[in-house]
């Protein structure tokens, strides 16, 4: 029987820098590239809209080379077992992913492969380092970023670039053809995903992005040419296009973080580029992935377990006002509306909106995590959980519990001219740069400009000095 490898895709929707696919093509006579779509296992709506487009793009990429993407749609365990029966692989290769829904599916796949006596091989290509490589002297994982970062940098010389020799050889793509399965409708994008992609809100979000491997590399090249050198100075200013906006591409594995590093290294040999501050952020992502590998409970529970007794209030009206960008605090509302319109929010503003929700409004970080999971195109189990816990003060390396982001100071500092607010909160766009950060403190100007607070734009949900005091009291009680 021909040696057949099933390459199981999760969040590595690309063809290059993909060791599982490279090895499968090199080692086997036939290769089935398979995506399992289980409607119960979606991360969130915006993420699913991107997924639908990403699968379409990948399917076209494979077809252009004479290959095929096979898609099984339905309960994961049932269809994984069915795929083994139909394709009869000798082995299954996949890239290991952290967090849900991936962990559960990986466990199920292991059981089913064992029952069917099929070898299952994970690859750690979505990490820079295999888990357990960057550890402290006691062989424990780092739980503070800076020492992790230093230790990781001390080991980057051990990394090897991906070998794309076989995937670059067009003749080998014939191994991925599977015309019989194409006829059986196994290369069709699932209707429920297409339905999400066709929603007006999804169309509005997707028009901001050029989804797929090619779009990812174009974005990277544009970022390197136009923004990399100034990244460190400009990255915190949301009105400036200064960051890469590569997070969704990285989440879907349309581009590999490790391949980006080697691209930067190669470039730095030809020209002078200032890439270290950006690599630091890529390593934040690595840190988040390793944390979830070592501490899987942190996806839904605080890393510092003493915070599990924190008394959150659940106020549906407050949460809804926050979600809709109607808190009356312009920088927060701008961020929440950017998220709703584009499926993305600037990192600095993510921290500010998260701090307001958890510390000033006293709503659990899990409400925020869930909303982000539903609305971000880059919604990622590792980065999202780490980000929320960092801000809420209950995670690793967390912002100290007593530190609240003062949204007014943040707004004045990082959006001094109010450009970001004007873009996303147009009802305030005529206000001066002095008034725009806190319209309620400038009621005369609002009146002059015809803005009726409480009607055209909300009054703030909370008095920020009072909410700060209440937060500090709650934390003191927790400590006691
Ligand atoms: C409350 C909160 C929730 C978040 N949720 C997510 C999420 O669901 N998905 C997600 O990808 N990021 C999340 N982040 C991290 C960060 O905001 C985004 O990765 C970043 O804004 C993406 O923009 P960029 O691609 O332009 O980043 P760049 O500044 O260009 O950075 C390059 C890459 O490094 C990684 N990165 C950058 N900052 C961080 C960080 N703080 N933590 C981990 N990785 C980072 C990302 O993969 C990013 O694409 C969250 C942050 C916070 C505070």
From TrEMBL:
Record keywords, A-Z: Chromophore, FAD, Flavoprotein
InterPro entries hit by this protein: Crypto/Photolyase_FAD-like_sf, Crypto/Photolyase_N_sf, Cryptochr/Photolyase_FAD-bd, Cryptochrome/DNA_photolyase_1, DNA_photolyase_1_CS_C, DNA_photolyase_N, Rossmann-like_a/b/a_fold
Cofactor(s) listed: (6R)-5,10-methylene-5,6,7,8-tetrahydrofolate; FAD
Residue stretches making up the Photolyase/cryptochrome alpha/beta domain: 3-128
Family under the similarity heading: Belongs to the DNA photolyase class-1 family.
Protein name per UniProt: Deoxyribodipyrimidine photo-lyase
The species this protein was found in: Thiomicrorhabdus marina
Origin organism lineage: Bacteria, Pseudomonadati, Pseudomonadota, Gammaproteobacteria, Thiotrichales
């Amino acid at each position: 029987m021909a040696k057949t490898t099933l390459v199981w895709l999760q969040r590595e929707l690309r063809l290059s820098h993909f060791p599982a696919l490279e090895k499968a093509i090199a080692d086997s006579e036939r290769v089935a590239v398979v995506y399992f779509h289980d409607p119960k296992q979606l991360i969130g709506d915006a993420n699913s809209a991107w997924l639908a487009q990403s699968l379409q793009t990948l399917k076209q990429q494979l077809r252009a080379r004479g290959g095929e993407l096979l898609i099984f749609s339905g309960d994961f365990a049932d269809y994984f077992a069915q795929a083994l029966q139909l394709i009869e692989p000798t082995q299954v290769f996949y890239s290991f992913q952290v967090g849900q829904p991936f962990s559960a599916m990986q466990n199920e796949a292991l059981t089913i492969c064992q029952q069917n006596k099929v070898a299952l091989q994970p690859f750690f290509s979505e990490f820079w380092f295999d888990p357990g490589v960057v550890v402290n002297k006691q062989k424990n994982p780092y739980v503070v970023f800076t020492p992790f970062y230093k230790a990781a940098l001390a080991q980057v010389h051990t990394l090897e670039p991906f070998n794309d020799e076989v995937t670059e050889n067009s003749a080998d793509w014939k191994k991925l053809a599977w015309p019989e399965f194409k006829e059986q409708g196994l290369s069709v994008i699932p209707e429920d995903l297409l339905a999400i992609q066709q929603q007006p809100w999804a169309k509005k979000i997707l028009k901001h992005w050029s989804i797929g491997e090619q779009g990812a590399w174009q974005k990277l090249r544009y970022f390197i040419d136009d923004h990399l050198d100034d990244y460190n100075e400009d990255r915190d200013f949301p009105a400036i296009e200064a960051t890469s906006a590569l997070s969704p591409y990285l989440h879907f594995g349309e581009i590999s973080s490790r391949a980006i590093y080697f691209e930067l290294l190669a470039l730095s040999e030809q020209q002078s580029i200032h890439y270290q501050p950006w690599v630091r952020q890529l390593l934040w992502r690595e840190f988040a992935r390793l944390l979830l590998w070592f501490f899987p409970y942190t996806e839904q529970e605080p890393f510092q377990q003493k915070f599990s007794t924190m008394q959150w209030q659940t106020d549906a009206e407050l949460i809804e006002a926050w979600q809709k960008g109607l808190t009356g605090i312009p920088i927060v509302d701008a961020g929440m509306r950017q998220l709703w319109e584009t499926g993305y929010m600037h990192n600095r503003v993510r921290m500010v909106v998260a701090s307001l929700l958890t510390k000033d409004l006293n709503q659990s970080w899990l409400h925020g995590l869930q909303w982000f999971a539903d609305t971000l195109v880059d919604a990622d189990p590792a980065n999202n959980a780490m980000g929320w816990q960092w801000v809420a003060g209950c995670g690793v390396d967390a912002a100290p519990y007593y530190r609240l982001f003062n949204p007014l100071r943040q707004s004045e500092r990082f959006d001094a001219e109010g450009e970001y607010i004007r873009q996303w909160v147009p009802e305030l766009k005529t206000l001066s740069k002095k008034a725009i950060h806190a319209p309620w403190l400038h009621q005369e100007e609002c009146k002059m400009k015809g803005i009726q607070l409480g009607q055209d734009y909300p009054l703030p949900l909370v008095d920020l000095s009072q909410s700060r005091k209440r937060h500090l009291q709650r934390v003191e009680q927790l400590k006691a």
